[in-house]
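Q: Okay, next protein. This is Vitamin B12 import ATP-binding protein BtuD from Pseudomonas fluorescens. I've checked the sequence twice, so it should be correct. Can you predict the 3D structure?
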Amino acid sequence: MGLTHPVSNLGRTSNAAMHRLFNQTEKPMNAAIHVDRLNKTFARKTALVDLALSIQPGEMVALIGASGSGKSTLLRHMAGLARCDRNNGGSVQVLGREVQASGHLNGNVRRLRADIGYIFQQFNLVNRLSVLDNVLLGCLGRMPGWRGNLGLFNTQENQRAMESLDRVGLADLAQQRASTLSGGQQQRVAIARALTQRAEVILADEPIASLDPESARKVMEILADINRRDGKTVVVTLHQVDYAVRYCQRAIALKAGRIHFDGAASALNPTFLNDLYGADLDTSLLFSDKARNVGSPATLAFARA
């Protein structure tokens, strides 16, 4: 099975080479994420169609595509936050364990989610709690329920939370209410929560969609650093394609719930993006304002395409 993109001159990497690197239809033994023939329908509207992919441990992968293409739906299925169709719904496995199959979640899905950090576009922080308390919530999946209900975090957990905050540059705001932070700071708190969780896989759903260019850069650099230094598998949905090129080795493009392209992010070019986004294409999808101004590697890559 070859690549599914329709553009023949997408880059210098051959179709055969990209197929060997990325487009795996059979589950590798050590896949971090394996999706097999996933189908999802909402009220007769098809969201995902026979979608199959494998992501290896330590990869940083961008999911791109127009609004409604299925990016967020796919990510939620990976985390077990949404169920696939009951009839021929397919399956999702993460870290070798089945998250769901044919509309049924694994009975131990709560334990499985302890290894999956999920970063939401709207941060999902508890505004009335302090920054530190929000980060400590990342410990809940690995501690007894009674301690979690009482908010009894031990010294080791508090230390781990502070180390996570230091990692994202917010240790000095640990006692501040989450509601007082900027959007970029709140997203970094959400990343610190995933670090404290000790997740092996991090799924980030449009983490920079509502952020200014500088805040977006900080968030993406932190995610890339976690991928590079810690070897964590990171999957991020993005609208700004220049960030996908700059920070991700691999890009998977969805169109109408199907995989339209699966290959090296560096192979993306404006011709392909015009085909992918069509009437929804906007220059902001290609280059952020900051990238335009500084002539980033991503900008140059598009210019050469």
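A: Here is a summary of the prediction. The mean pLDDT is 84. The two ends are 26 Å apart (CA to CA).
Q: Noted. On to the next one.
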